[in-house]
TrEMBL record, chain A:
Highest taxon of the lineage: Bacteria
Organism classification: Bacteria, Bacillati, Actinomycetota, Actinomycetes, Micrococcales
Organism: Galactobacter caseinivorans
Keyword field: Membrane, Transmembrane, Transmembrane helix
Segments crossing the lipid bilayer: 25-44, 56-74, 94-116, 156-178, 190-208
Protein's name according to its UniProt entry: DUF969 domain-containing protein
InterPro entries in the cross-refs: DUF969
UniProtKB/TrEMBL annotation, chain B:
Organism of derivation: Galactobacter caseinivorans
Protein name, entry field: DUF979 domain-containing protein
Transmembrane segments: 6-24, 36-53, 59-80, 101-122, 134-158, 170-192, 212-230, 260-284, 296-321
KW Membrane (keyword) present: yes
Keywords: Membrane, Transmembrane, Transmembrane helix
Keyword Phosphoprotein: no
InterPro entries hit by this protein: DUF979
């Protein structure tokens, strides 16, 4: 039971906003020591853990091309494009992206999009440009933070609740291999994937409506700005 | 058969280039620490190949990883001065190149998909060209390379150093968060080997009432979500909660529909993933990539959705997975 001290350390560390790398490393070492793992084995686990998880860092390969086209005005052009599409507000762009992301993930195309591939270079600049066009000026720092958070959320929610509908995805295969070997069942991936559909639809509806409501939240943020209020007043 | 190692070497080489870029930048405030961090990280990507093949001792890599944590955790590294184009220059360049700018960005996903779908079909001497399970990863790596070549053609003339200077800027904005997902996966291993999973499973198994269906369902779903938040990964939480509650109580005791219970149990775990900084590659790295002030911004945006979805999942499981 004492190994749960390590879990508590993680929670406390994150709550106090200590550098997460330190939190994770220290609580990992303490948990392992309590659990009776020898220091040399702990070092071995840090080594094999790093070597075995390198695939999560693959996204950095996209950075050179993204940085290059950003330098040549990618974000500015994304803004120009949005200028012409008057009906696309920030919320609608993100809701549309959620649908696309979820459908693509559901047919197995998960790494076609992602924070480095699509969110930073394409979706966020469009979402920000739409807000800029709507309020007629640069959005506040606070509004930009909100748009960034929601853009990232659209990508993640779409991925999570789309991929489980696809039969060959890791999570489905993990379930079948685990329960088949542990409990002697023989489940077909399709039997599981079908049950992911109702929750997937709920995810689309819930998060989609929250994204559409983002426009109203941004209104509020912009409304607090005295410059904008006087501009609106002048129009009235 | 081609595996993913060449791509990890490419990533390692990329980190080494970044380290050299920083080391030669006289104006960098934390030149030594930053270039040491990225350089050592790059070397680790090469050395890992032999660790993975069990041809070199893993503890050396473990020591190197701890040095990386010290460099990053005690602020020996930091971002350098930004040197990129001004907003005016960017607007002028966008006016000149217009939608051609999107071509390299779109080349990444297009190549990824072509490789992911096409490569498994290619066989040489009846052996698949790519090792199993590496097609999408390889696709992403190839996509990045092809896109860079396309960008050079479209934007010419570009000095070869420019994309690396620009990606150094992006990578330094991400900073230590680039290493976090890999560290968290190691933490998961340490937790599991130290018996954290068993302890949590025992606690849930002992407090869940065996005879009221709704509480069993709630315990399974909420437990998987909470445990996922701790471990940062639904894959780690699912087997433990399934062994503690899902299988003995929901399937055996209440005669539930096993595939429905397991599929939705995993989705309950995903609700937890949406709310935890431990799932760094989904929640923290995007915040770093978007240069957010509040690194928990994506979690704030996701938490209400996760809460509502967890309730939906519980309801779906309760009403559809059991003979009522």
């Amino acid at each position: 039971m004492y190994v749960l001290i390590g879990v508590a350390l993680v929670v406390i560390g994150f709550a106090l906003r200590v550098n997460p790398l330190l939190v994770v490393t220290i609580s990992g070492i303490i948990t392992a020591l309590i659990g009776g793992i020898t220091p040399i084995d702990i070092l071995n686990i840090f080594g094999t853990g790093f070597a075995g998880s390198r695939s999560v860092t693959t996204f950095v390969l996209v950075l050179p091309v993204i940085g290059l086209i950003e330098r040549y005005g990618l974000q500015a052009q994304a803004g120009n494009l949005i200028q012409k599409l008057q009906k696309l507000t920030t919320g609608r762009i993100l809701a549309l992206y959620l649908v696309i992301r979820q459908v693509l993930a559901a047919v197995g195309l998960t790494s076609i999009a992602g924070p480095a591939q699509t969110v930073r270079p394409l979706v966020y600049p469009m979402a920000e440009a739409a807000e800029k066009r709507r309020i007629g000026k640069e959005p506040s720092e606070k509004a930009k933070e909100k748009i960034k958070g929601y853009t990232s959320s659209a990508d993640t929610v779409g991925l999570f609740f789309g991929e489980d509908v696809f039969v060959a995805v890791g999570s489905i295969l993990l379930i079948t291999s685990f329960v088949d070997t542990t409990y002697g069942l023989s489940l077909e991936p399709i039997q599981l994937a079908i049950w992911a559909i109702p929750v997937g639809i709920a995810a689309l509806l819930i998060h989609g409506s929250r994204l559409l409501m983002l426009d109203r939240k941004l209104d509020k943020l912009a409304g607090l700005d005295p410059n904008l209020r006087s501009r609106k007043g002048a129009q009235a | 058969m081609i595996n993913s190692e060449w791509m990890y070497w490419l990533i390692g080489a990329f980190f080494l280039v970044v380290a050299v870029m920083i080391a030669t930048n006289q104006d960098h405030p934390k030149r030594a620490g930053s270039s040491a961090f990225w350089g050592l990280l790059g070397l680790c990507f090469f050395y890992s190949t032999w660790v993975q093949a069990k041809a070199a001792p893993a503890w050396i890599l473990g020591c190197a990883v701890l040095v990386l944590v010290i460099l990053a955790g005690f602020k020996f590294m930091g971002a350098g001065p930004e040197s990129t184009t001004s907003p005016q220059e960017r607007a002028a360049s966008a006016a000149r190149l217009r939608n051609k700018l999107f071509i390299p960005a779109l080349a990444v996903p297009v190549v990824t998909v072509i490789v992911a779908l096409g490569a498994p079909l290619i066989k040489i001497n009846n052996k698949p060209l790519l090792a199993e399970g590496t097609a999408t990863l390889t696709g992403l790596g190839l996509g990045a390379i092809v896109a860079l070549i396309v960008a050079f053609v479209i934007l010419r003339p570009v000095k070869p150093a420019v994309p690396f200077r620009e990606s150094t800027r992006l990578l330094e904005a991400i900073g230590w968060a680039a290493l976090l997902p890999q560290m968290l996966s190691t933490l998961g291993t340490l937790f599991t080997q130290a018996g954290v999973g068993k302890a949590v499973g025992d606690i849930f198994g002992s407090i869940v009432p065996q005879d009221v269906l709704i509480w069993g369902v709630v315990a399974y779903c909420v437990g998987t979500a909470l445990f996922t938040m701790i471990m940062g990964n639904a894959f780690a939480a699912f087997p433990i909660m399934t062994a503690a509650v899902g299988w003995p109580i929901l399937v055996q005791n209440f005669d539930g529909n096993a595939p429905a219970i397991f599929a939705m149990g995993m989705l309950a775990g995903f609700c937890g993933t949406l709310c935890t900084p431990m799932a760094a590659n989904f929640n923290i790295v995007p915040a770093a990539l978007l240069e957010m002030k509040n690194k928990y911004g994506p979690i704030v945006a996701q938490a209400p959705t996760a809460g509502m979805l967890l309730i939906v999942t519980i309801a779906c499981m309760y009403f559809f997975a059991f003979p009522h």
